[in-house]
Amino acid sequence: MGAAASFDFAAVTRAGMGATPPVASGTSAAVQGTQSVRRAFELLQLVAAQGDAGIRLSQLVLLSGIDRGTAYRMLSCLVEQQFVDRDEHRLYRLGPAALLLASTLTQPMPLLQRFGPAMKRLARRTGDTVFLMMREGDHVHCAHREDGPSPIRILSTVIGQRRLLGTGTGGIAILGLLGREELLALHRRHAARYAEMGLDAERLLKEAEQARRQAHAFTMNNLEVGIGGVGLAFRIARLGIGAISVASIAAKLTPQRHHELVTLIAEELRQIEVELAFADRPD
Description:
Blueprint: H1 9-15, H2 29-32, H3 34-49, H4 57-64, H5 68-80, E1 84-86, E2 92-94, H6 96-103, H7 109-126, E3 129-136, E4 139-146, E5 162-164, H8 168-175, H9 180-189, H10 191-196, H11 201-214, E6 217-220, E7 227-236, E8 240-249, H12 255-272, E9 275-276
Antiparallel strand pairs: 1-2, 3-4, 3-8, 4-5, 6-7, 7-8, 7-9
Helix pairs in contact: 3-5, 7-12, 8-11, 9-11
Coiled coil: 194-221
InterPro entries: GAF-like_dom_sf, HTH_MetabolicPath_Reg, Tscrpt_reg_IclR_C, Tscrpt_reg_IclR_N, WH-like_DNA-bd_sf, WH_DNA-bd_sf
Pfam families: HTH_IclR, IclR_C
């Protein structure tokens, strides 16, 4: 957007992506035309959020508020440019061009620039290992970790690792942001894998409800025996969901320590100015 134009970004936010934004006097026709670009990016973000599961046109129309004809034309253009893939079942997923574009970054630099300093402070203040977990469809991805001075090293999660939602402290914290039907659909898609982990649908729902009620996740012996964790979920940008978690020796996680970790993580997330998933709930 041109810097010279006076533009009411708050009004755009209130109006939503599907509405026509107010245009300041003197704003060029080219700037006004960016609504189509916004909508195309919104569709791309919605497709990306579904990961391997894919998403149908009808769902995209419902979530975006874009009319069906416009959404179909934009998706067809994204398919043509290989940013989106449409399979024989008419499910949309990210295409090779989007994946190739992401692969040109040797590290997720924007995330590291934003979260790295806070994670270093947490690792230093707690002495423990701090993880940044980002949702990728039905999975969580370890985008970064910071090891504190503790001689105990957490071996179960490394940078770049992906695991199903609901496993690991960060993955459980993120569950709290999902509704009942979404959770049940998630479990159906990966029933065999969840069964291997002894995680039935009822337990998945209980884990999500507990994360919502507590406004954070608290785990003991989840991925490693003798290791516990505390994690808080957050939202970033319009559709991004992630969690910051701290893993510690279980013996150290007394009720007082548990509360301290929740407070420390929440303070850092507020400083980064991301939206805490349960900001209206007590720590």
